[in-house]
């Protein structure tokens, strides 16, 4: 059972309390963008075997969105962090690098 | 008493010259002959040679789709200098992990064409490859349990009539006749009808991989197991070969048919795919006496079930909602699936579950597959079958082989281009089926 700690209410929530929201930090291309931009925004996904940044919602708890950094190859959770950010903060990157020294960094 | 040897030596073909040893045919006479000599004469079902330096075509992934692609390359296009490379063991990925359902009652024309081609190829596959895949056209029913589903399935039946796929919409009473163990009166969702495909069914999934592997090996192709691809080499924008744990292999054309790991291989080849890999689970019960001779899919409550020849109830349900490469899923999905099926089939409530497992499925945005050329010349990809690839194995291989041989997708594959997302030409089966399929 996947357990993520919601950074908004600090509750360690089972995945039955949580709603997965897909890849985090994607660029939401708007009006005037070309077909390739919309394809990237709507359909192209990183899908890495390893470190992955995701959006989650504490839907059966406080109801807030947040971010998680997870390993898709081992299901290890590196960190959860606020939704109010465009990229993973430094402490999350440090947490990942301490566990995955050869990780190349966020794409 | 005869001098029976308990452990007869298996005639290994590992070191024998390539292509020089045609495999013996399986037949009733072979069974009788071997019975008379204590089964000492069986040979390995396929050859396991070391990789050559160069092939015309290398297929990465010896699951059903990869092996079927190699098979039709040889059968339909005469391309036999082919290697099929497998990281693990043959058919050990999703081919050996699915619930073996075969049907073709899809809404969209492109889907119906390839799945119906596939279903019809399954009918003759045992004879084609000289290997009993135990195809059992026992019939597949998809339950309509809401008014929305009734209308949706009636629409699908009309579409199928135009596509030449034989399906019908049947009454709750007919559903009960076909499957007496089903509770059609609720409690949450009474059965309002069903989409019935009498010529759908099941097959033995391992045998599909083994049968194709054997037929490919018999044509002189190399099946190379426990050989992981570590890189894709290119020169001048074209595929030059692959790097593997068993050395460098050159090839003119490369087919990537690796399901859940498509994103990993695409990264090696330098392009991205509109895919996400998630875990899908299945489970089987302890074996019981025959009680159900069709396949039932209940999409609203979300579970599907059939009974294997061994008597186990084979059960599948929903996929996880987050990316995962571990081949194990979340337990609460099992609970939801079993709960749904106990509503539908009350008699299974006391059954013990015997085994549970997961596979990594590659999901596209429109829940339809990708059979496509890629940005790298002479590199082709077959992926995105998501939760429903087993039923498509022969047809998918047929279409992919045609694309690799000609360099351009043929009529079955052309709509499944990976560029359809940019162009807005979706083959939207997620709406059509209303469920992962």
Summarize this structure as a short list of keywords or feature phrases.
heterodimer; A: 107 residues; Folate-binding fold; B: 437 residues; alpha/beta; FAD/NAD(P)-binding domain; D-Amino Acid Oxidase, Chain A, domain 2; 2 domains; eight-stranded mixed beta sheet; globular; disordered N terminus
Folded structure, characterized:
The complex is a heterodimer of chains A (107) and B (437). With 107 residues, chain A is of the alpha+beta class. Chain A has a single domain (3-99), classed as Folate-binding fold. Chain A has two helices and six strands; from the N terminus they run βββαβββα. In chain A, strand 5 (65-71) and strand 6 form a beta hairpin. Chain A is globular, with a radius of gyration of 14 Å. Chain B is an alpha/beta fold and 437 residues long. In chain B, the strands form three sheets. In chain B, strands 1, 2, 8, 9, 10, 11, 17 and 18 form an eight-stranded mixed sheet that branches. Chain B has an eight-stranded mixed sheet with strand order 5-6-4-13-14-15-12-16. In chain B, a hairpin with a 2-residue loop joins strand 10 (238-244) and strand 11. The longest helix of chain B has 21 residues, at 109-129. Chain B starts with 27 loop residues before the first helix and ends with a helix. Chains A and B meet through strand 3 and helix 1 of A and strand 12, strand 15 and helix 10 of B.
